[in-house]
User: Fold this.
Amino acid sequence: MKLSELKAGDRAEITSVGAETTIRRRLMDMGLIRGTEFEVLRFAPLGDPIEIGYKGLLLTMRMNEAEGITVRKLPVEDRHQHVESARSRVRFFRRG
Amino acid sequence: MADPVKQIRVALTGNPNAGKSSLFNVLTGSHQRVGNFPGVTIEKLEGYLDYQGVRITVVDLPGTYSLTPYSPEEIVTRRYIIDEKPDVVVNVLDGTNLERNLLLTAQLMEMEVELLVALNMIDEVEEKGISIDTDQLEKLLGAHIVPTSARRRQGLDELLDHIVSMCDGQIEVIKNKMTFSPVIENAMEKIVALLGQQRELGSTNHRWLAVKLLESDREVYTQVRQYPVWVKVELVLQEAITECQRLHRTDPEALITEDRFAFVRGAMQECVRLPRATRASLSDYIDTVVLNRVLGLPVFFVVVWAIFQLTFTLGAPIMAGLQFLFELLARSVAPLLPNAMLRSIVVDGVIVGVGSVVVYLPNIVLLFIGLSFLEASGYMARAAFVIDKVMHRFGLHGKSFIPMVTGFGCSIPAIMATRTLKSRSDRLATIMTIPFMSCGAKLPVYVLLAGAFFPPAMAANVMFGIYLLGIVVGLWTAWMLKSTVLKSDSEPFVMELPPYRWPTLASVVFQARMKALMYLKKAGTLILMAVMAIWAASNFPRSSRLDEALVLEKARIEASATSPEVKAGELRQLNSKVQAAQLEYSLAGRSGKIIEPLIRPLGFDWRIGISLVTGVVSKEVVVSTLGTIFSIGRSDQGAAGLSSILRNDPGFGRATALSLMVFVLLYIPCVATLGVMKKEVGSWRPVLLYTGYVLAIAWGASFITYRLALLMQ
Assistant:
């Protein structure tokens, strides 16, 4: 499904970034690449643009741009799994 | 102190909001210079400092997330690094947000520059409990890392020590290469070999060119395409695309970006430990209120209102004070100059001219204090997020809103405020919209005319209608520009919302000072010259016959046997009559007559024509010229008197008044605005085209208004 079809509070993973060259490149450089997991935080009061959060970053984009991004919606319980696995990874790489 | 013999050039790079500019400020202090990068209107900040006998020149490159050829900031940064070859490139990282910041670092590594990393905001890193293994990160990045905090002035000497010793060759940095997926590396190897055969391409950094070719970088494409080796290179590129698709189900460009992020992720896992607790930050709490579905818009409007009040309500007394000072100066200088001509040049020309430049300063300074506060605190991006939908409808960007609203106060600071817009076409469209937002100087014209020809209750409606018309024409102009000449490269709305930060006083003051200086230096001279030119046009040529008649008449009045009061009254009347006649005789007066056939269909005679010509200095001058030309001395009656004179004038009626208000709203922006516009747009051509456009619009709208008003009477 498309990123633009998600609702506030949904979590999803990016499967591909389409869109026109300039925008596509911009999105990818902001870390929106295959496999990036994010949460839809909110829509602007007038319904457009959309704000998503991932890796400590808050990113906004217009719905036009969000339409070019295909995502796989993650089930709600996946969220805890994701956080847990990230934590164990952090522990694993803990040094000193 | 002896002149430093050794010179070092350092370029600062980094993401927006990484604290790059703060670092630049604390390093260079007051030794700064603002220029532009060649060919673009991106500010180039350059400063210097002397450290241990070395003159270190620091260039603050624009904040970027990446080094693509798609945004002017990124192109400027790339070109500077490649063409100017700075001795050291300092990559400023936001230590609290390393994962995103390191993407740019990875790209700088590819460029094989003399890289030094400033791990900035180290104070916040410690507060948040993030631990970073800098030794290991240094190895991975192949660059030395110096922890800094620009806010607390930490680590600055260490940074400078590193810069100096890097240039002395005292520090041996073992560079680390970015490695990509095998498909990419294979193709790169082939391309590097091919590029080596083409002598014209030089011997430097073929690896970087190869990466860029695989990324379909249009700048590098055009560079390489002109050589015969391109034929072979293209084959390799084709092959890489096919292979990428077969093995990774994607294109080389995406794969390269993924590889960079994989590198960054690896570095993060190896070197960075984030705190366990991931509780919602204060920033998140603020956003749940500020970006709330219900509260978002009200909060936004309150903020915009506050900025407007700060700039214009707070600015008004300061402006009045400045005006008073200049009047005082004029009054005290005038008696010192016995020669009438010289007096006029100094008082009406120079003092008024300089005054009209300086008078905008309080607004500019206050607006930029407000704007840099919004920008540095992180709200500016949120404001754009909230209002973007509306602005986008007219082809504009969410960030266009605040400059546009500021235009209701004064176009000059408003146009300067469009610098927050990154894309040139968005900026141009916004700049061309601003003069239609009815500014403070047009208000006296409306007050005079609406007050003279309409009952008070109607007058308010008329003025409201005029403001509304300005907004409609402005937005229509933006929409039309964006769907025709400025159709290309609109800035994609992909914008980061930075965490809220309390701005430092130093950075806010710095921004305001910078804008004030830029205005005085760049636009000031232009405005001064234009004001003086119009002064000259309204004073020359002078009729000597009139001067002689004046002397004779004066003598006659003096000699007559009436009371002193009557004499004084007659003299005053005589003076204003001659003043009006001289104005009529001058160049401005004649041009008023020349344009009369053109403005006749709008209901204007030559007298209104003259005030439109002089009104180009500043719109409120229309009122004072109407006062002079309709033959009342400035000293007596005042505006109330003028309105009754206009009402009783056969050449003036409701239709003419309405038509004139519309014309003043829409026609040529004042010279100060044109000067700032030229400065911000970069050349005269668009400004002149725009002037033609507004004249046509003004003529058309006034014509329709006049005819409709006549019909309804």
Summary: Chain A touches chain B at residues 16-17, 21-23, 25-31, 33-34, 41-49, 51, 55-62, 65, 83, 87, 89-90, 93-96 (CB under 8 Å). DSSP finds three helices and five strands in chain A. Chain A has one domain: 3-93. The radius of gyration of chain A is 14 Å.
